[in-house]
Amino acid sequence: MRYRHPWLNLLFSPHPRWVYNTAVMLLALLFSLLASLATSLYQVHNEIKHDVNYLDQIVSVAIKYGLEKPTLSEASRVSGECSTDTIEQLEKLYVSHLLMSIPIVNLDKQNPYTYCSPFGVEQFEQRNFKNLLNTQLKGEMWRLAIVSLSTAPKHPPYLYGSNGQYGFLFPLRTEYLFLENDLDHQRSIRLSLPKENYTILEIGSMPESDRLYSNSVASNYLPLTFESFVSTSRVLSKFKQNLWPVTTSLFMISLTILWLWVSYWHAKKEIALQKAVREAQFFPYYQPIVDAQTGKMLGVEALLRWRPSDGRVIAPSKFIHYLEQSGDIISTTENLITTIYHDLSSLMNQNDEFYCSVNITPLHLQNDDFYYYLKRFQHDYSKLTLELTERQPIENLALASQRIALLKTLGLKISLDDAGTGYGGNSYLHYFDIDTIKIDKMFTRSIDEGRSAVLDGYIEMAKQLELNLVAEGVENKLEAKGLLLRGVFQHQGYYYAKPMSIEDLHRWALDYGYTQELVSEGSG
Ligand code: C2E
Ligand code: CA
Ligand code: CA
Question: Residue range 209-232: average pLDDT?
Answer without folding.
Answer: 87
